[in-house]
Amino acid sequence: MSLYKRVRDLREDKDLTQKDIATLLNMQLTVYQRYERGEREIPLWAAIKLADFYKVTLDYLVGREN
Q1: pLDDT at position 1, please?
Q2: Are the CB atoms for 34 and 22 separated by under 8 Å?
């Protein structure tokens, strides 16, 4: 499973919008949307913040563990 799909799935499992997560990451919605579509790499600081928010490891987030 790709990082981008996993990030989207985690967001949807929490019934959050892309705007909710863009706000959490203090970025524009369009930037976050590009992350979920895989059009832009998610920077490490954002991946760490997402992993902390969803209470998962970075390894889980990037698909290295289930």
Answers
A1: 53
A2: no
Tokens of 43: 């920077």
> 32 burial class (0-12, 13-18, 19+ CB within 10 angstroms)?
buried
Secondary structure (DSSP) of the chain: --HHHHHHHHHHHTT--HHHHHHHTTS-HHHHHHHHHTSSPPPHHHHHHHHHHHT--HHHHTTS--
Residue pair 2/42 in contact by the 8 Å Cβ criterion: no
Q: What is the pTM of this model?
A: 0.90
